[in-house]
Amino acid sequence: MTNLLHRFRAGTGKLAWNHPGVANAPETIIVSSPAFADGGPIPDRHAGPGVGDNVSPPLNWDNIPSGTRELVLLVEDPDAPLPRPFVHCVVTDIGPETSGVEAGALSRPADRAQVSFTVGKASIGKSGYLGPAPIRGHGPHRYIFQLFALDETVDPARRRVTKRRVLEAIRGHVIARGRLTGTYERV
């Protein structure tokens, strides 16, 4: 089965990064993590359930433009053997004064009352961060941490925050963007 799926991948064309109304925004935000370098392997601690500890990695960002009213973060795997990239995390309502999130901030449901952002649903329908857990032997997968600066806020009353709903809401309102890519492979 793995051999049949090895070449089948969602591709980068359907990432939030390339969505109409988003793709033309300047790439001026710098996104980084003390846990892994851009293009480098994501540590097992941040891998998904059954593979790692499913602790969201610490993230930092810089160069948020003035006029930003909200930040939105989407984490996607364009190498999943699916028609669309697998969504690992959707976060809205991040304040523009925020310069990052600590390890575990996106994956600890008990602590969410203490944070000022909204964590939406991953592709499997559960809220919160879902770490990498690619099919064994499928090769390396890329995990794209995409941060978008908006000139308006996404409706905070939304209860079911999903990639589709977020993309509808932010279309035409992204004034800057940045990304960090991590990799993970199960052999």
From TrEMBL:
Highest taxon in the source lineage: Bacteria
Pfam families: PBP
Entry-linked InterPro entries: PEBP, PEBP-like_sf, YbhB_YbcL/LppC-like
Region Disordered, residue ranges: 35-57
Family statement drawn from the similarity comment of this UniProt entry: Belongs to the UPF0098 family.
NCBIfam families recorded: YbhB/YbcL family Raf kinase inhibitor-like protein (TIGR00481)
Protein name: YbhB/YbcL family Raf kinase inhibitor-like protein
Lineage: Bacteria, Bacillati, Actinomycetota, Actinomycetes, Mycobacteriales
